[in-house]
Write a structure and sequence with these properties.
The complex is a heterodimer of chains A (266) and B (314). Chain A is an all-alpha fold. Chain A is 77% helix and 0% strand. Chain A has helices spanning 13-26, 29-58, 68-98, 101-107, 111-145, 154-181, 185-204, 209-215, 219-226, 235-260. In chain B, helix 2 (90-100) packs parallel to helix 4 (130-143), helix 3 crosses helix 4 (130-143) and helix 7 (211-217) crosses helix 10 (286-294). Chain B is α/β, with parallel strands linked by helices and 314 residues long. The longest helix of chain B is centred in the middle third of the chain and has 16 residues, at 160-175. Classes of the chains: A mainly alpha (266), B alpha/beta (314).
């Protein structure tokens, strides 16, 4: 038997898997569309709300107190996070849709390693997306709110930006876990929409106290608490704990399903 | 070396692979045959850990695929040429692949050259023809310079040049001492490419033998003898039947004889003083052997069928 050429360069393992996922994520257009969409919808939301508030203010009407960071944060919760969740769902469910999961699992056959690599990549990408959208939205908010803005300071604003960046990373874990559990792009994005937005909002507006309390444990509510909005009463530390629990729980759930499933496209 | 031990895969009620035990040796091309749905692809998918076996094991050099830290340096597989993101360029696909297993990026250019895709490297893979996708899949299989190669229907969609290229590549890889397993529906192609055959039918092992043996097992050659005179034809036919050879009449002036060589038949005709117009040896083909083996409804005279309209045994 001939001696095979010695292959080549360093190690495999988790770092290599993360690097590979990075090449994959940046080399498809949908990634960049989702990130652009996040920033655009947040900016558009802030512009709409801000212009309307400053017009009311100019007319002498009473406007609810809001800082540029608050408005940008609402933009992320109501709209931007869905584009971010789409990005994360595509990173796994999209592989089943195109059939590329069969290639990916040949490269990295250990399911746990692959899903962890995707999470370690998606989290910072979504952090960056959330930060960029909140920052852009806040800057637009400063401009359009103008005199209608509630008193704010740069340190507070940057704190909000960082908090929403963190929340966005958690959205990445939730969506990735969802995509691993339901390997269909439409199905997993739909379920993210429910968990991240519809359920907590409808529970909060239900008027039944028990339901409202349940709504408070959803990630969106915890994210609101993190930026100091009203809602749940568990404070910033509690909010961090709730978000981390969601991130870990969804990833573990996704892992449990992903491990057992054969790599066949859906 | 690939070792399958009592490998079994069940999808609901259907047994796709049924207690398959076989070893695939290095240094030769092993052809993997079987009708559609025989379990070939499922077996290949279990070897690389895409499908989980219901029971049994598939091992490469004694280890499961998942247990290799850099599996692409052990096993290169072309399973489904379209199993990639259509929006990603061939170059980025291979770059991501290389990076996942710590393979130097310089290999990407090398394998693209090797399969002749260097000019298409920056095109989105979704725009590739099936033949180009197959080449990209083969490039991926070669990327980690692995000792084991699995090709599932590699010549699908390739032009005749491409078919020859794949045949030479498989032979070359085997000659380098690698384990090469190629599945195909094209029997003629397998006869040219493979040294050894594994045949599956309904998930079970039907045969594990050298190609030469399989072809010989199909009943060896037959001889076609053409005799212009009707009375002579009947005479030699009766004589051959007395010798308990298998004789089949084909058309007005022809017999198909099994169990005697062209030389023996020529000598016999000479001894009987019978004029003949043609003596022709018809080699059994792998296709015939395969049909006999997989128990399809066809008899193995498929090649002679079109002249066999009227003819019958005397």
């Amino acid at each position: 038997m001939t001696v095979l050429r010695e292959p080549i360069r360093h190690k495999g393992g988790l770092p290599a898997a993360v690097g590979s996922e990075w090449v994959k994520l940046r080399s498809v257009r949908s990634t960049w569309w989702c990130l652009a969409a996040t920033v655009i919808v947040v900016v558009a939301y802030v512009a709409m709300v801000g212009l309307s508030a400053s017009a009311s203010y100019a007319n002498g009407e009473v406007v609810p107190p809001m800082t540029p960071g608050d408005v940008a944060g609402m933009g992320v919760f109501l709209l931007g996070q869905l584009a971010l969740a789409t990005l994360a769902c595509m990173a796994i469910a999209g592989e089943y849709a195109t059939g590329s999961i069969a290639s990916t699992l040949q490269w990295v056959p250990r399911r746990a390693r692959l899903l962890l690599a995707k999470a370690l990549l998606v989290a910072p990408v979504l952090f960056a997306g959330g930060v960029a959208a909140t920052l852009a939205g806040s800057l637009v908010g400063i401009y359009v709110l103008d005199g209608a803005a509630a008193p704010w300071s740069w340190p507070d604003l940057l704190g909000d930006v960082a908090a929403i960046g963190f929340y966005s990373a958690v959205v990445g874990f939730v969506a990735l876990g969802m995509g691993a559990m339901l390997p269909s792009v439409a199905g997993s994005i739909g379920c993210c929409f429910l968990v991240l937005l519809m359920l907590p909002m409808s529970l909060a507006s239900s008027g039944v106290e028990a339901l409202q309390r349940i709504g408070g444990w959803f990630p969106g509510s915890a994210g609101m608490a993190l930026v100091g909005g009203d809602g749940p009463t568990y404070g910033v530390t509690g909010a961090l704990a709730v978000l981390l629990a969601w991130a870990a729980g969804m990833l573990a759930g996704g892992m449990a399903v992903f491990r057992r499933r054969d790599a066949r496209s859906t | 070396m690939i070792t399958l031990h009592r490998l079994t895969k069940r999808f609901g009620q259907k047994l796709a692979v049924d207690d398959l035990t076989v070893e695939i040796e290095p240094g030769r091309v092993t052809g993997f045959l079987g009708p559609n749905g025989a379990g070939k692809s499922t077996t290949l998918r279990m070897i690389v850990g895409l499908d989980h076996p219901t029971s049994g094991r598939a091992l490469i050099r004694g280890r499961r695929y998942e247990d290799f830290d850099r599996p692409l340096t052990e096993v290169g597989a072309l399973l489904d040429a379209k199993a990639l993101h259509p929006g990603r360029s061939a170059l980025n696909h291979l770059k991501a692949m290389a990076r996942s297993n710590g393979i130097a990026e310089s290999r990407v250019g090398q394998v693209l050259d090797e399969v002749g895709l260097q000019d298409a490297a920056r095109r989105r893979a979704g725009t590739f023809s099936l033949g180009m996708s197959q080449r990209l899949g083969i490039a991926g299989a070669l990327l980690g310079d692995p000792g084991v190669l699995l090709f599932d229907e590699p010549v699908n969609g390739l032009d005749p040049d491409g078919v020859r290229w794949v045949r030479r590549l498989a032979r070359k890889l085997a000659a380098e001492g690698r384990t090469v397993l190629v599945s195909s529906h094209l029997m003629s192609e397998m006869q040219l490419t493979a040294d050894h055959l594994i045949v599956l039918g309904r998930g079970r092992l039907l045969m594990d033998a050298p190609v030469r043996e399989v072809v010989a097992g199909a009943g060896g050659g037959r001889v076609q003898i053409r005799v212009p005179n009707r009375r002579d034809l009947n005479a030699i036919g009766r004589r051959l039947l007395q010798e308990s050879l298998s004789v089949r009449r084909m058309g007005d002036d022809c017999l198909l004889v099994e169990g005697a060589t062209a030389g023996e038949l020529g000598d016999l005709a000479y001894a009987m003083d019978i004029r003949i117009h043609q003596l022709k040896t018809i080699e059994a083909s792998l296709e015939e052997a395969y049909m006999a083996l997989t128990g399809d409804s066809l008899e193995f005279v498929a090649g002679a069928d079109h002249i066999d309209r009227t003819g019958e045994v005397q």
